Every structure is written in structure tokens, then in C-alpha cells.
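Worked problem 6 (solution included).
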Amino acid sequence: MRITTNMIMRNYQSSLYDNLRGLELARKQVETGMRIQSAYEDPGAAANAAVLKSRYTRTEDYLNNLGSVDKWLNEQESALYEVSNIATDIANKYSVEAITDTMDDVGRDTYAELLRNLQNTMVQFMNSKFGDTFVLGGNAGTEQAPFELSADGTTLLYRGVDVNDPANQAELERLAAETSYVDIGYGLSFDAANTNIVPSTAMNAALPGISAIGYGQTNGTSNNMILLVGQMAEVLEADTFDRDAYETLWTRFQEGASTLRDSITQIGTKTDMIENTTSKLEAEKIAIQEQFNDAVGIEPALAITNYSYAMYTYNSALRVGTGILGPSLLDFLS
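Solution. The predicted structure is:
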């Protein structure tokens, strides 16, 4: 078989291009840390990598949701904690024993004024915001402040509803039960009617304020802590001090303080759940990354070795080419 110069040139050029492609592939492996750059190189590995990448992205979304919910719960807890501190202060300084029958009108008026100041402070804390959202406004936190106290401290509205009016009991119960679920990786799912979220598959981040400080009446006495403080002040301002009435209000207030502390404990339970879930998802994120690397990744040392070998091969091919390409007439012209 006769081998011509053109045949040698074509074969050499083809081999040189192959070496150049190998060098480019090795370079991309070093840059990206991935063994394959296109699905056609390894369809099976590419399909597996696509699934893992989707899982990784979803896990990151869950972690972002957890971070946001954690900050939200911290604001809720902080607001209720401040109200609880006020309740403790009232328990220590404004008990029935502290308001004695021998205290004069001036003394009781001073106590009443202090109680009204605390009443307004409680409303301010219950209207705490996280960003532009009221954290204790149920699932409608971006609208107006949830709590509104009348100037005389006798009427409290929660989202426009009088919390002490028995006629509003059903509406108040609905508002107190509001939820706002966040998907944090528990397998979010709906009930058989496909209308309501199954509570165990998501986290409820809503906390209606009235569920923490009370609403409605029991035996004619308000269940709301803020109104009870105002009513205690009214008893102190009266011409004649009614010790029994004050004791009834103070006792009911202490019962409300206990419910408030339970709400804070529930937030703490959610916070612990977030911490545990975050640790679990962080571990899952690492595991997914390892699986992804096993599927389409390449060890850095191996990638650099491959690149060095590809560069050596390409340079060797160039040196061989100088021996194949003989001098032409142009090389002798000056």
C-alpha cells in the first residue's frame, strides 16, 4: 500500500485534534471538578446527578425556610416573654396583700396609674413586628396592628373584634385557631379532600395573640390579661376599695399568666424542633453532595494528573508534527 504525504498529514491532524479535545476535557475537569461535562458522555450518571441536584436544591429551600421560621419564632417568644415579665411584676407588686385596706386613696391611685402604664406597654409588645409583619397577628400579620386598646383601657379589639364581648365568642375562637404552615421537609401533604394541610407534615408558624393572653369571659369576668389589668386599676380608683373584686381580677390574671407561660413553652418546643430538623437537613445536604461527587465528580488530584498527562501528550504531538511537516519552498525564500 502506498502511503502518501497527504495521508500522513490527515492522520496527524486527526490525532492532533483528538489530543486537543482531550486537553480541553481535562482542563474542564480541573475547573469544574466534574468528570463529565455533557449528558451524552455518561447518560446514567447524568440522570442520577440531575435527581441529586434537585434534592440538594430542595434541601437548601427547606433550610432557608427553617432559618426564616426560627427568626419569626424568636420574635414571637421575645414579645410574649416581655409580657410575661410584666405579669410577674404585677404578681409581685400588685397582689391583694400589697393593696391593703389601710392604703389611702393617693396610694391606690398611684398603683392604678402604674397598672394603666403597664397595660399600654403590654399592648405595645403584643403588636411587635418582624420586618413589616405583626408576629402575633395570626395569619393576617401584614395588615394593621392586631391589638387596639381604647383610651380609657376598657375595650380591647383584636383585628377589629371586641375580645370581651360574648357575642363574638365564635369569631374569636376562629381567630385564635388560625394557622400558617411552612414546608420544612416533613413531606407536606393535604387531607383526603385536598383542602387542608395535614398538621404533622408542616410547621405552624402562626401564633394568634389572643390565644396567648386570653379572650371572652368566664362567670362574668374577663379572660383577657390586658383588660384585667385595666379593670384592676378601675377597682383601685373607686371611692371605696372592693377587696373581693380586686382579688377576683388578680386571681384570673394569674391564671392568664400561666396560660401565657404555656404559650412561650410551646414556642420553645418548636424552636427545638427547628434545631433538630436543621441538623438533620445539614447532614442530608452533605450526604447528597457526596453522592453527587461519586456520580459525576472527580478527585482534584486525579483531575490535575489527567490534565498534566493531556498537556504532555499534546505537546509531544506538536513536536512530532515538526518532523512530519517538511520544509517548503517558502522556508527558503527571504
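Discussion: The chain has a mean pLDDT of 86.
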